Amino acid sequence: MIKLIAVDMDGTFLDSQMNYQRSIFRKIYQYLKRNEIHFVVASGNQYYQLKSFFDDFQDELTYISENGALIIENKQDIFHNEIPYENLDIIIQRLQRNKHIRICLCGMKSAYLLNGDQEFYDCYSKYYYRLEIIESLKEINDTILKIALMVPENETEDILKDLIQDLGHVIQPVSSGHGSIDLIVPGFHKGSAIEFLCQRYHISLDECVAFGDGGNDKEMIEKVKYGFAMDNGSQAIKEVAYRVVPSNNQHGVIQTLLELFDIPEVTEREKALLGMWYDANHDPKVVKDRLNTHHLCYRYNQTDPLELKQRQSILEDIFQAKVENLEIVPPFLCDCGPYIQLGKNIFVNSNAYFMDGAKITIGDNVFIGPSVGLYTAIHPLNYKKRNAGYEKAKPITIGDNVWLGANVVVLPGVTIGSGSVIGAGSVVNKDIPKNVVAFGNPCRVVKEIE
């Protein structure tokens, strides 16, 4: 039985926009809380930054911050270590020999950029909400938990090896992602923090789940019974993981938690938005919403072209949003409506079908020709599952200033870059870059647009 779940944040729980499916996770969290399953945030980042992601329940959680150097439970410090001051001098002297290394000392009260500039401050302020610039260690009156380094991305591995060789006797250098290295007290890491919590909660490591993507997650992933590596994670993490799960941008943590636990509050439509298999044909709410949307599309298609205000009103009912200079030539059909996000100045010619089981994003100044299909839905290859009505869906993104010719088909998961033109009759099954002409089945780039 699972009694503890630990998640890394950057590259794991959070997507590339530093966000997550908040409404769905809230339902998951309530389920975990009811069943006395601990949810633990385990990150190299600052506690004050980490808690900001969890809205009104942030103070109910347990945080392993600074890669295991500080553990906060219900706003209380239950564990911390520190780098001895005499070791700080040795470490800083060695680091300052390389002018490409930027130094952040992470303390209990704040983080401190040693001789930092505005660029360094702007970058680290995303991860350290309490942050100061100092010129000397003498300015610090704080317990230093960890040292975070910003290094050139293409030199990360070489610098890491050199630091292990030169400083391994006083500090443990670990990779925390490309361009980032953490120096932590030897023997203290996310894995040791999980062990500490297991003792505190009287549970075993076999009752723990952990998710991670980088080198600073390795000990945690190895120690628990169910260590999951993100598909976007490093090869080293994947090699020690129990299983590889979908990437952070595919909401892999939330998907996996819904596979592990039966949480009835999470709807079939929410599963669809996560890219999971869902009941698209028998779930009453999914069917009702689709019929309502089809009804609105029917009303729009029967409206006189001269009744501009009424047509505008129906379109806003379909998409549940204000539309600006949108022209759709009937007939038009979509399945959900609100999952279609529209920019400004869009023209859609007749007989378009937007199969929006997942999100469809269309940018500004887009021309869409007759009989274009944007299809997010995927059916199972297994006929028994297919006959049972299951589907999954992947989002489609159309950039600004795109022109899709007549009878273009865009398949699930595709992004078409801004400024590109897709020739008539094309089947787009892979991403198309910006500012190109592409056509064919399958669609291929033919030339760049100057």
UniProtKB/TrEMBL annotation:
Domain Maltose/galactoside acetyltransferase stretches: 269-324
Q: Would you say which domain of life the source belongs to?
A: Bacteria
- SMART domains the record matches: Mac
Family (UniProt): Belongs to the transferase hexapeptide repeat family.
- Enumerate the UniProt keywords alphabetically: Acyltransferase, Repeat, Transferase
Q: Name one GO molecular function term.
A: galactoside O-acetyltransferase activity
Q: Which Gene3D superfamilies match?
A: 3.30.1240.10, HAD superfamily/HAD-like, Hexapeptide repeat proteins
State a single Pfam family of this protein.
Hydrolase_3
The record's PANTHER family line, in alphabetical order, gives: ACETYLTRANSFERASE YJL218W-RELATED, GALACTOSIDE O-ACETYLTRANSFERASE
Q: Which organism is it from?
A: Coprobacillus cateniformis
- State the name under which the record lists this protein: Sugar phosphatase supH
